[in-house]
Amino acid sequence: MQSGDVAGFAFGLGLYVLALNYVRYGPEGVRGWFSAKLINEPYQLRGDKLVKPGAEAEDATPSSSTTREGLTTTRPTVPTTI
């Protein structure tokens, strides 16, 4: 194995990660990945949207769901970082 093989593998792995973020989240996913890796400003995943930390999301209130018995349960929306 030569150094060119390792460099090609690393480059391909980086392209795979960027393509996967583009497919999942669109252009915002690629920008979020670069922001997280290069300038240490991670994005957060809320629902199916990526938002910057500290940004107010329209669904920032706890989500609720109604059970079969008619009782309402609430669960907090927990953001995950990428």
Characterize the biggest β-sheet.
Answer: 3 strands, antiparallel
The global form is: elongated
Strand order of the main beta sheet, please?
A: 2-1-5
Structural class: alpha+beta
Q: On the 0-100 scale, what is the average pLDDT?
A: 76
What is the H/E string?
HHEEEEE
Number of strands: 5
Low-confidence stretches: none
Number of domains: 1
Alpha-carbon Rg, integer:
18 Å
Tell me the span between the first and last alpha carbons.
Answer: 32 Å
Count of DSSP H/I helices: 2
Helix percent band: 40-55%
Percent in strands: 15-25%
List the helices and strands and how they pair.
Layout lengths: L2 H23 L1 H12 L5 E3 L2 E3 L11 E4 L5 E4 L4 E2 L1
Antiparallel strand pairs: 1-2, 1-5, 3-4
Helix pairs in contact: 1-2
Describe this structure in words.
- The chain is of the alpha+beta class and 82 residues long.
- The chain has one domain.
- The chain is 43% helix and 20% strand.
- Strands 2-1-5 form a three-stranded antiparallel sheet, with helices on one face.
- Strand 1 and strand 2 form a beta hairpin.
- Helix 1 packs across helix 2.
- The protein starts with a helix and ends with a strand.
